[in-house]
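In the current project phase, the collection of sequences with tokenised folds has grown. A sample record is quoted in full directly below:
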Amino acid sequence: NSNELALPLIRKVCKDSQIEYGNSHELTKLDQFYDLIHIDGDHSFQGKIQDLELALENLSQDGVIIVDDYNSKLGIEVKKATDLVVKKYNLKLISFKTFTGHALLKR
């Protein structure tokens, strides 16, 4: 998968950063906060809500969440869930016209 291919490059570029990689459904609240969280996972409505709420619990005050597939044809449920979470938690959303339609969320 593309994430496994990108991980060595990310580790090389982000030498001084801690990188957590894994299935979000296997993670629980982490012991620290992160400045950047990239979510490219569950495309179901409920799964994306769970991913985003877990990310928010672990996001630093000035942190950013990147959501993959926000504007893609495969991400209809991703967009619905993300929009709901943005409204519920009063987040700022910036949508990018990338190949997979990324969105950036910030408090």
About this structure: The two ends are 30 Å apart (CA to CA).
